[in-house]
Amino acid sequence: MSSNKLGLDPALVHRARALAAKAGRPVVDMAQSHTTVSVERAVLRLAGVTGADPDGIPWVNRLVDAVRNDVGLGHGVALPVFHALAEHGLEPTPAELTLLAQKAASGSVRFDLPTGKAVTAAKKASRRQVAAGIKQIDRNRADRDKMIKRYGDPKQRPWIYLIVATGDIYEDIPQAQAAARAGADVIAVIRSTGQSLLDYVPEGATREGFAGTYATQENFRLMRAALDESSRELGRYVRLTNYASGLCMPEIATLAGLQRLDMMLNDSMYGILFRDINPIRTFVDQRFSRQIHARAGIIINTGEDNYLTTADAVEAAHTVTVSQLLNEYFAHEAGLADWQLGLGHAFEINPELPESFRLELAHALLARELFPDAPLKWMPPTKHMTGDVFRGNLLDGFFNLVGALTGQGILLVGMMTEAVVTPWLSDRDIALQNVRYVLGAAGNLHEDFVPAPDGFIQRRAHQVLDEAIDLLEKIEDDTLLNAIADGTFGIMKRPAHRGKGLDGVAKHDDGYYNPATEILEAPAKEEQQ
Amino acid sequence: MKTVVRPYGDTTGDGMTQVSFTLPLPHDKKAEGAALQLAAKMGLEPAMLVHAKQMGDGFTFFVIYGSVRHLVELDKVVVVERDFPLLTAKEVNTVVKQKMRRKLSVVGACIGTDAHTVGIDAILNLKGIAGEKGLEYYRELKVVNLGAQITVPELVAAAKAEKADAVLVSQVVTQRDAHLHNTREMSAAFREALPADKRPLLIVGGPRFDELMTDELGVDRIFGRGTTPREVASYLVHALITEKAERKKAVAA
Predict the structure, then answer these.
(1) Is the Cβ–Cβ distance between A100 and A89 less than 8 Å?
(2) Is B131 on the interface with A (CB under 8 A)?
(3) Is some CB atom of chain A closer than 8 A to the CB atom of B100?
(4) Touching check for B165 and chain A: CB below 8 Å?
(5) Sheet holding B141-145: strands in order across?
């Protein structure tokens, strides 16, 4: 698939990757030596703890908080929880684990760290229970493969990605099904604004959200079931996307695996930069969620497009490349394969700038050539959508054309009413008509499109790659955490000791045990041996 | 000056107007008739139905051109005109330096769950918007941009800590009127926390505000779509320095 239309020097590309790995390694080491409340809650969710107290606080939160109060988080929750189960004569089943959570919440259980033989017993019991959750994720992955075999993948590339966002899951469902009928291959249910800063995952089907619908296990289940119906009806497998981001990233990834979601937004730095979530919390949570996504066969979408909404799309083009390389490194390290890397980028250059379209082509092609086997997620213009819907529709057409010319894998459908209203039925129809026209008229133009050697597009792509390498060299000298603190990405300054959720981070103590990580990392280790 | 105008297609007074809408009907003759009936009720007469397209099972999208019979009476139009002089950055700095003899303190934020910092960043960040530098560029302004998803108590605390002369709040998300609720909550909190003479100037901005709603929302000024940093800076000088001086003069006289 690698065609080298840009004449990139393979040695430079190799160097860029090596630098990204060097910059990323200390962050991985940090992630491997810390845990968070959300990672531990995800472990309990895999073990089958469900439901919430009468105030809507999930039992996994109550249980993790109780354990943390008694013995801290440094050993993980698996050992104290499964030890307490045994001590109280409860069986290691989802039902009795939830019962333990209820008892813990009422203060009638005290947690201790097991010693001696009890350690082995607690490890064994927790591993068996968590393995059952992971087995469910494996079954879902097999089911997806079967359904894709039966119904087929979309006939064209890029896949057409549409958003629904009503706030009410029961309104979202008919809208999503209508969008699928109108041609959407991937449906994303946008989350309620503010969910990223909730330190718990809401429970049940929800009908109240702001500019989006809460991500809950039940909402996931309802929407996936509805899209299974659509897949049957349409004869192609319609994929479902949500957001593994914010303070509950590992838990949402877990719920996505348990409910057979197909794609998840999961950027390495988005939460840090745009939600002011603590960098350490984010990197620890992210590694675990990516391990889950890898196991679940979920395609991740990264969020580089967002940098360009705050920074200038030409000046900061190389920060997108750097972030893509870092996202790739973190993703590979967590076990994700290339086909699972929906690395992000966007059409956000000021249209008033001379040659803006050629610059867009250069940037999009650079991403394509650097990551030949990744699907790549191509995001439409938002920053320069002015409310002039006619001009907006034209810009979206050019955006679609770049997508076709550079073989993007996933195309988020641009709305001419961006920055005006949440899309109306007719806006979506017009937008899809735009996509269909461009893909129908020029979908295979990438076969003919080869930029002139040493022409404008090639030179621009080389320049961006060079700048990316320069920046990676600086990051390597200064460390990634410092680079983030200095405002390198998206012009946001985010020091490592600040931001939301830091109090939910704990350094591993000796004897930390996490059965999920143990299982998720096992196959990779076996392969290496 | 003319006091009555009509929309202009290609001839003065033709009243030509274009509208598009969706009706929850499958596309047939009757649906087209229904669209024309709606156009007539909107004042478009005669109207031409130029495009109709069914979407999904039970919806049809229409584009209609027609002559609108309504007249625009210019003498009855009410808007908020800019009632202060537009200054350059240099002029702003000079006035602040000479009249205030200290830096003018500005605190900005997106409040509530709104995560869209595009607006506040365009006004405050050095980078600015449309070639105009943001307030951080103004040497005599001290700007603190708290960013997104700031709670009202956090904002009040920051305004107190920074001894803010003005508080700028940006609101983009309008679902269920969140921008109005948030703004009212914010202005109420400032009224509660500080006596009138200590209260900073309260300014909100966002693409969906009605600029006439200042009293209803309890703020000093509302800025709508297309506002530039320079307008905001000029307003700050006008409201915090020029007007104050004039009021003092009036009291003295």
Answers:
(1) no
(2) no
(3) no
(4) no
(5) B141-145, B104-110, B166-170, B201-205, B221-223
Under 8 Å CB pairs connecting chains A and B tally to 59
Residues A79 and A327: their CA atoms lie apart, in Å, by 32
Q: Which of B55, B173, B207 sits opposite A426 (nearest CB)?
A: B55
How close does chain A come to B235, measured CA to CA in Å? 24
Distance from the Cα of A455 to chain B's closest Cα (Å) equals 29
Confidence of residue B157 (pLDDT cuts 50, 70, 90): very high
Report d(CA A409, CA A38) in Å as an integer: 31
Pick from A241, A143, A164, A250: nearest CA to A199: A250
Question: Cβ separation of B125 and A422 shorter than 8 Å?
Answer: no
Distances, alpha carbon A439 to alpha carbons A253, A399, A413, A426, A432, in Å = 32, 11, 12, 20, 10
Tell which residue, A411, A439, A417, A440, has the closest CA to residue A429.
A417
Q: Are B199 and B238 in contact (CB under 8 A)?
A: no
CB spacing of A425 vs B125 below 8 angstroms:
no
Q: Cβ of B113 and A210 within 8 Å?
A: yes
- The C-alpha angle with vertex A385 and arms to A158 and A356, in degrees rounded to 5, equals 70
Interaxial angle between packed helices A515-528 and A117-151, expressed in degrees from 0 to 180 and rounded to the nearest 10: 70
- Confidence class of residue B101 from pLDDT cuts 50, 70 and 90? very high
What was the ipTM of the complex prediction? 0.83
| Residue A519 region by backbone torsions, left for phi larger than 0, else alpha for psi between -120 and 50, else beta | alpha
Contact criterion met (CB below 8 Å) for A169 and A222: yes
Q: Which residues of A are catalytic?
A: 270, 305, 377
Residue with the two structure tokens 């989350």:
A191
Which domains, and CATH codes, for chain B? 4-74 (3.30.30.60), 89-252 (3.40.50.280)
B101: closest CA of chain A, how far (Å): 31
Closest chain B residue by Cα to residue A208: B176
What whole-number distance in Å separates Cα of residue A478 and Cα of residue A468? 15
Whether B24 contacts chain A with CB within 8 A: no
Neighbours of A8 (CB within 10 A): 19
What is the Cα–Cα distance from A368 to A300, expressed in whole angstroms? 17
- Which stretch of A193-202, A466-475, A498-507 has the lowest confidence by average pLDDT? A193-202
Report how far residue A456's alpha carbon sits from residue A452's, in angstroms, rounded to the nearest whole number. 8
Whether the CB-CB separation of A290 and A266 falls below 8 Å is answered with yes
Checking if the pLDDT of A428 tops 50, the result is yes
**Closest-CA distance of chain B to residue A426, Å:** 6
Taking each helix axis from N to C terminus, what angle separates A249-258 and A37-46, rounded to the nearest 10 degrees? 20
Residues of chain B contacting residue A422, judged by C-beta atoms under 8 Å apart? 175
Alpha-carbon distance A43 to A40, whole Å? 5
Tell me the per-residue pLDDT of B27-54, one tens digit each, with 9 for 90 and over.
999 999 999 999 999 999 999 999 999 9
CB A69 within 8 A of CB A32: no
CA distance B60 to B35: 9
Query: Under an 8 A CB cutoff, do A425 and B20 touch?
Result: no
Q: Note whether A210 contacts B178, CB cutoff 8 Å.
A: yes
Residue B124 structure tokens: 């405050």
The answer, for B170 touching chain A at a CB cutoff of 8 Å, is no
What was the pLDDT predicted at B246?
Answer: 83
Selecting from B21, B56, B121 the residue whose C-beta is nearest the C-beta of A310 gives: B121
* Three-class SS state of A312: coil
